[in-house]
Design a protein that fits this description.
Layout: E1 2-7, H1 27-35, E2 41-46, E3 60-64, H2 70-82, E4 87-90, H3 92-96, H4 98-102, E5 107-110, H5 117-125, E6 132-134, E7 160-161, E8 165-167, H6 176-180, E9 185-187, E10 207-208, H7 211-215, H8 222-229, H9 238-242
Parallel strand pairs: 1-2, 1-3, 3-4, 4-5, 5-6, 7-10
Antiparallel strand pairs: 8-9
This protein binds cobalamin.
Cobalamin (B12) binds at residues 10, 21-22, 24-28, 31-32, 62, 64, 66-68, 88-93, 96, 109, 112-114, 117, 161, 163, 175-177, 235, 237-239.
Length: 245
């Protein structure tokens, strides 16, 4: 089976390639690639950086959808569907706006992918995709893996993204995170998992970590603290630091 993963851009403007911002490795793509069995032939296209070859043969397309990429994701999905290719969508927007997203996809995945992605793959292989896949489970973050080899050859910003935890326990109603994770919060169990020492596939000298972890310096191992002093920096993000930090 041939699976095509597509990272949608935030939008397109006629005559302009792309608004060149935030071109970092998209972690949901690396995660889906790692979850996919090895006998599936995976292609990946990043709409932020390159034209999507809609006519390249594929059996299924999977697209992560955030609210800010939803419109573009629907355009991409429509192009593939016009060619008879089934589309699966998941992510924050797909979970929060399931009915809307379902108009543009054969299948919508609600919740975290880890415990349900194999069902999607199996059903796609047998040509029996369900309209909706829903997972309430919260997978053990110690077991979560990313296949970053899928990004080889692309010139992303030299930032290594490390996922240190998921969710937030604060009830800020403007924030999608507390809704998506139902006000739960969990972290990778070993504090060293946050560090480059345990993320060998990251080569970059700069980490994107949640700001709070940098404030709490001692929670980062000595090697990463040295890195921080040597000039790595954390890129704060509206969600976490608004939420009680
Ligand atoms: C890292 C990050 C960024 C980075 C992006 C890095 C990159 N790779 O390009 C930066 C800092 C640049 C960024 C910017 C923005 N971000 Co941001 N960001 C995040 C953050 C912190 C982590 C996302 C991530 O990679 N998670 C790790 C992956 C593995 O987890 P995940 O995305 O949740 O995916 C899981 C499930 O959703 C599901 N899943 C996801 N996709 C798919 C697809 C399929 C097919 C399936 C089956 C499942 C599935 O399975 C995954 C594993 O369980 C989240 C908040 C958070 N804590 O989640 C916000 C978040 C995604 N960002 C958000 C926003 C709003 C923005 C901005 C628009 C903010 C702004 N106003 O500028 C910009 C947009 C930038 C742009 N132009 O593209 C919102 C999106 C809300 C929404 N309703 O969609 C979030 C959720 C924060 C929030 N408070 O609500 N962001």
């Amino acid at each position: 089976m041939r699976l095509t993963l597509v990272q949608p851009a935030i939008g397109r403007k006629a005559g302009v390639n792309y608004m060149r911002t935030w071109q970092m490795e998209p972690l949901p793509i690396a995660l889906l690639a790692a979850l996919t069995p090895k006998d599936v032939d995976i292609a990946f296209h990043d709409d932020r950086m390159e034209p999507i070859p809609f006519d390249r043969p594929t059996d299924i397309v999977a697209i992560p959808v955030e609210t800010y990429t939803a419109k573009r994701a629907y355009q991409i999905a429509s192009e593939f569907r016009r060619r008879g290719v089934p589309v699966v969508m998941g992510g924050f927007h797909a979970t929060l706006m399931t009915d809307e997203v379902a108009e543009y996809a054969e299948a919508v995945v609600v919740g975290e992918a880890e415990d349900i992605w194999m069902d999607v793959i199996d059903d796609a292989r047998s040509g029996r995709l369900r309209r909706m896949y829903s997972s309430n489970s919260q997978p053990d973050l110690a077991k979560v893996r990313y296949d970053r080899s899928i990004f080889r050859g692309r010139r992303y910003l030299p930032l290594g993204l490390v996922e240190t935890g998921r969710g937030c326990r604060f009830p800020c109603d403007f924030c999608a995170i507390q809704t998506f994770f139902q006000r739960t919060s969990r972290h990778r169990p070993d504090r060293h998992d946050r560090c480059r020492a345990r993320v060998p596939e990251i080569r970059e000298e700069t980490f994107l970590l949640r700001r709070r972890q940098f404030r709490r310096g001692p929670r980062i191992c000595a090697r990463s603290r040295r890195g921080a002093q040597a000039g790595w920096y954390s890129l704060g993000h509206a969600d976490e630091h608004q939420c009680g930090a």
